[in-house]
Amino acid sequence: MTVSAYIREGITSLRSTRVRTGLTTLGIIIGVLSITLVMSLGEGAKRTIANQITSLDKGIIIVKPGGVDQQAALSSYNPFSIASTSTLTERDLHSINDLKVTSAAAPLMFINGSVKFNNHTAKYAPIIATSPEFADLLKLKLASGQFVSNETNRDTVVLGHEAALDVLGNDQVRGQVIQVKGRPHTVIGVLDQTMAPINAIGVNLDRSAFINLDDGKSFNQGIAQISQLIMRASNPTTTSQTAAAIDGLLLKNHDGERDFSVIEGKDVAENTNAFYNIIV
User: Fold this and answer.
1) d(Cα 163, Cα 159) in Å, to the nearest integer?
2) Integer Cα distance of 158 and 128 in angstroms
């Protein structure tokens, strides 16, 4: 048979099974579109975080639980990453500060619980216990009030813009008392809208509620279960050396167990699409 004969026979076969041919074609189209979409999301997230890191001061370093191999599967934008067990402790934070190679360092401790006011509950609102340096490191601006500090009372809270709207209906809410994990907290500030649900720490800051670290520890029997550490090198031109020094320090703290990852700001975005690659 000639090539043209094979082609005619193939077309005839396809026409005789139109339903099966149509379903097969549709399946191929959906598969290709799905892979393209997932890859585009990964690249988009990567570019977004790269731009965010660029907008921050140089020298940003992030410490996360899990070794480098684990971080490849549990990236900064993986929605399950903040739920992973962490071996980072308050001792690690103090040791980094004592090393005097950073100009600022802040912990992130995620608290499971709700943010409520009467019958209104903030949707998807992470509760983050942290320190005042966090706002400086991420260049967060306030629409009103102040960020958490070492001087503020324990039962105080700062709301992201969308969290304030969800719970209280507007962003002029200073002085209102809301329930954070079932305990009364006075709102002392509201963040400006960041419009960055995808970011270096993997949390939607606009929907978050922020309390100070001592308050967070009170929800966990006085223990700081730190999920991430974010810091800025004192000398941005030696960020790699600073990261290496922090890595060595934490390795001693953890008895030689590399159950953490020290990531320079320039490398954070490189890991953000790992989650999408796993899905594909």
Assistant:
1) 6
2) 10
State the DSSP H helix or E strand holding residue 105, giving kind and residue range, or none if neither: strand 102-111
Report which DSSP code applies to 192: P
| Residue 13 token pair | 């076969």
Helices (H), 191-238: 213-218
Cα–Cα distance for residue pair 251/146, rounded to 1 Å: 36
Strand partners, 211: 129
* Cα–Cα distance measured from residue 218 to residue 12, given in angstroms and rounded to the nearest whole number: 74
Q: pLDDT digits over 237-273, tens only?
A: 899 999 999 999 999 999 999 999 998 876 765 555 4
- Distances from the Cα of 47 to the Cαs of 42, 202, 232, in angstroms? 9, 14, 21
Three-state DSSP class for 187? strand
- Residue pair 197/58 in contact by the 8 Å Cβ criterion: no
Per the DSSP assignment, residues forming a β-bridge with 65 are 260
Dig out the tokens for 193 from the structure. Answer: 């809208």
Q: What is the pTM of this model?
A: 0.74
- Any bridge partners for residue 178, and if so which? 185
